[in-house]
Amino acid sequence: MKISIKIFVVSIPMCLLSCNGSDSNTEINALDSTQQNNSAMTDADYLALGDSISASAQVVIKQNLLDALGNGGPLNAIEFCNTKAISLTDSMAIVLNTSIKRVSDQSRNPLNAADSEELNYIKNQKEKLLNGENVLAEVHESNGKMIGYYPILTNALCLQCHGKKDETMTSETFKKIQELYPSDLATGYDLNELRGIWVVTMDKK
């Protein structure tokens, strides 16, 4: 069964949530405890658990990205994303004992391209934005797993590397992106657009 619950999405560099990592871990531990004390978790429980997991991963990536920006601006941040972002996400998946990834219908790295189900979710959420509605996180069951989708919206800092050339993104940054990502599709965004989603795959208990 698929459910939709409104989640307030906060955009920061690379559209990551600015939450406290220790708080996220506390939420995960609390949910784990609830899971142990009850025979089954509800869809809403899984949705909240996936949100906590994605937020914990975002804290780590956010800090590394901010360090890259502080040490060399957007050009250095692009280098970081090119060489570290995916491996860092994979490392966080190990730490959090789950499967987590970022995907998009307009990916920069082909490894972050959304599959058919993810594309359908992204399409539906983009339609909501066009209609002035809030984007929604969702969770559904697939092959004995619970899969959560969590929207990533753009903000002004995102647009330094994902915006429009010579408007929110410099020509130098655009050129660097073309060098590192010849098949890049992740530019041309405006504020508060859906740039992609976090996908969290959880074991069903």
- Structural category is alpha+beta
Ends distance: 15 Å
Gyration radius over CA: 17 Å
Q: Globular, elongated, flat, extended or rod-shaped: what is the shape?
A: globular
User: How many strand segments?
Assistant: 5
Write out the strand line-up for the largest beta sheet, numbering strands in chain order: 1-3-4-5-2
Q: Bin the strand percentage.
A: 15-25%
What profile does the largest beta sheet have?
5 strands, antiparallel
Helix content: 40-55%
- Oligomerization state of this entry? single chain
The overall number of domains is: 1
Low-confidence stretches: 1-38
Q: Helical element count?
A: 7
The pLDDT mean sits at 82
Q: How are helices and strands ordered from N to C? A: EHHHHEHEEHHE
Q: What does this protein structure show overall?
A:
With 205 residues, the protein is α+β, with helices and mostly antiparallel strands. The protein has one domain (3-203). Helix content is 47%, strand content 17%. It is built from 7 helices and 5 strands; from the N terminus they run βααααβαββααβ. The protein has helices at 21-37, 43-70, 73-83, 85-95, 116-130, 159-162, 171-180, and strands at 3-6, 99-103, 136-142, 145-153, 194-203. A 5-stranded antiparallel beta sheet has the order 1-3-4-5-2, sandwiched between helices. A hairpin with a 2-residue loop joins strand 3 (136-142) and strand 4. Helix 1 runs antiparallel to helix 2 (43-70), helix 2 packs across helix 3 and helix 2 packs across helix 4. The longest helix has 28 residues, at 43-70. The chain is globular. The model is unreliable at 1-38 (pLDDT under 50).
